[in-house]
Amino acid sequence: MFLPSGAEHALADRIDAELAAACEPGQVTDNGAVEVPASSDHAPGEKTVTLCGAYELDLRFIHPLLAQLPPVVILQAPFDRGDPLRDAVELLGMELDRPGPGTDHFIAALLDMLFILILRACHDERVLPDQTRSWVAAIQDTGIRSALDAFHDAPGHPWTVTELARRSAMSRTAFARRFHELIGKPPMTYVTWWRMNLANALLTDTDQSMHAIAQRVGYSSEYAFAHAFRRERGIAPGAARRTSARDRLPDSARRSRVGVTA
Questions:
Q1: How far apart are CA 223 and CA 135, in angstroms?
Q2: Selection from 59, 54, 8, 58 nearest residue 28 by Cα
Q3: Which of 202, 197, 206 shows the shortest CA–CA distance to 229?
Q4: Which of 135, 189, 221, 230 has its CA 20 to 30 A from that of 61?
Q5: How far apart, in whole angstroms, are the C-alpha atoms of residue 75 and residue 57?
Q6: Average predicted confidence (pLDDT) for the chain
Q7: Closest Cα partner for 180 from 216, 229, 147, 221?
C-alpha cells in the first residue's frame, strides 16, 4: 500500500475488526520494531508483521507526479521471486531484522530504490487516471523530456521559453501549449517552482551562502532571489533556513523513516 499524500488509514483483516492503537514508523525500538497490542479477537500465538516506511515531504510543494496519484494505491505483490519490488521489500526486511555496519545508510538507499520501484509499478499498472495528460506522459514525450532534462541539468542557466522550445525541437507556441497540457503549468511557472524547491533544499540541507544559492538557481543578486523565493513560498529565505534549523530531525532520521510493526 502506497499513500502519496500521507492519508490516515487503518489495516485490518476484515472490515468489522477491532482496531489496535495507532503507531508511527518513527516510533520504533532499537531493533526497529513496534509492538502493537493484539485485539481481543486475535487468536493466541498469531502475529502479523507489517513493514512501514515514510518520507518527510512538504505537501504544499509536492512533485506533479505524486500530486496526480490517488490518495491510496494498492499494489499486489507477485508471489514469484525475481520481481524487483518484492525483492526490495524482502531485502529491507532482512536488513531491519539483522542490522549491521552502515545499516542507516543502507536503509535510506533501499527506501529510495523502493520508492522508484513503486512509481514504476504505478506506471505499469496504469494507476494514474489519465496517462495521456500527466507527468508520465511528459517524460515519455521526446520533445518535452529533452527540455526538462536540459533545465534540470542546469537550473541556474537563464532559461527562456524560446530556448526550452529549441531544446525540444518545437516551435515556441507548440512547446508552451504542449508543456502546459502535460505538466499542468506554463514553462516559466514550472521553472520558477522547481528553482524555489531546489533553493529550499539547499537552504535547509546545506550551509551554502545566500549568494551561492541565488546563483545556483539562476538569480544574479540575493535581492532578486529573496523576492522570488518569498513570492513563491510565502517566507523569506533566511526565515526558511532558521525554521528548518529548529525543526530539523537528527541526520539519521531526516531523510526517511522506516519501522516494523508486529
A1: 32
A2: 54
A3: 197
A4: 221
A5: 22
A6: 79
A7: 147
Cell of 230: 518569498
**217-232 confidence digits (pLDDT tens):** 999 999 999 999 999 9
Please give the Cα distance from 92 to 99 (Å, whole number). Answer: 10
Cα distance between residue 102 and residue 111, in whole Å: 14
Return the C-alpha torsion angle 74, 259, 250, 105, nearest 10: -90
> For 21-69, what is each residue's pLDDT tens digit?
656 555 555 555 556 655 556 566 666 677 777 777 665 567 777 777 7
User: How many helices and strands (H and E) does the chain possess?
Assistant: 12, 3
Q: Specify the residue for cell string 523565493.
A: 229
CB 181 within 8 A of CB 133: yes
Q: Cα–Cα distance between 47 and 36 in angstroms, integer?
A: 10
Taking the CA atoms of 148, 128, 181 and 60 in sequence, report the sign of the dihedral they define.
negative
Is residue 159 a contact partner of residue 192, using CB atoms and an 8 Å limit? no
Segment 134-146 shows an average pLDDT of: 85
pTM assigned to the model: 0.66
Domains of the chain in start order, with CATH, are 135-247 (1.10.10.60)
